[in-house]
Sequence to fold (397 residues):
Amino acid sequence: MNRLPVAFVVQRYGREVTGGSEALARAVAERLSPFHEVTVFTTCARDYVTWRNELTPGEEEVDGVRVRRFPVEDERDLTAFNAFAEPLYSRSRTRDEEIEFLRRQGPCAPALVEALREEKDRFAAVVFFTYLYYPTYWGLRAAPERSVLVPTTHDEPPLTFSIYREVFERPRAFAFLTPAERDLVRSRFGIGDRAAAVAGMGVDVAERGDVAAFRARHGLSGPYALYAGRIDAGKGCAAMLAHHDEYRRGRSGAAELVLIGRLAMEEPRQAGVRYLGFLPEEEKAEAMAGAVAVVCPSPYESLSIVFLEGLSLGTPGLVNASSEVLKEHCLRSNAGLFYRSGEEYAEALDLLVRNEPLRGALGASGRRYVEEEYRWDVVLGRWRGLLRSVGAGYPSA
Fold:
């Protein structure tokens, strides 16, 4: 079989790298590799906070995918970056200020961009992951001809910057994660008659495992809601903790809130909240399967794999309604509830704890939703169709 060559451009990549767009890029690259010769252009950074060069520059193969790593020129001081960036969000900006924002946002890797400029003609498509970062802005300027943007867009302050209007003007095609993301981009920037697909990301459906053993291991005798992911105020976790405190106040039979993942804020010590650390995938599945709900508190989401993983195991979602993507998931799947305040969080969680038939009905709807929309064979069909359309003029296409 003639495998068309495709380039992926993403800020971090590898087994040790976790995160939304990075996880998406790796999952799609590995599953497309039987059909396409995939080369990943990425940096030597492992950590998205500092962009510190921790991985070796050069070329390696990672699970069947060719990976080329380029050094980051400027390590980021997040405190200094935030002090520079936050005033820009609330006022008009010069182009020079926005370009400086982009450099400080990082990861600043001009060697990556130059290599892409020199080699772009040998690829049938060049796929850029995430609109926000330096490699996407400068990479799209260097290689727009057969470009696909996977913007992972959500409504956040930088989306108003004029440099990002340029980012959305340059691609020849778009791969969106959800209809809500597609509609946001259309409303802000327009995509005209350019190729676009709600390609999404597949979900690997895990086994439920031994939920009783998980409960016994962690001393969980009653109902609990689960948060899984980076525990970070920017992900809505501080507000979630406050809402959960309000929910438990004076309520008998209240659920605990179990947190799993990496801490990016001070470890919570409040009553009714348990932090279990970072769990292996098998135990994470057990934790999800035993929960009354998987809580997704972030107002900024472009897909939420955690939400979909919970649905695949028959666990309803409880999500922040400020995220149009999460709210749309709930409405399309009929498998979750959403809240806009602490009072609504408390009412929704109390309903899920006390109404087992409702939980069962939502869980069954969630399993159907994932099966119909997020199986990998379905998702890869969308990706392959989009790449064929972009690479139609390639010599061996």
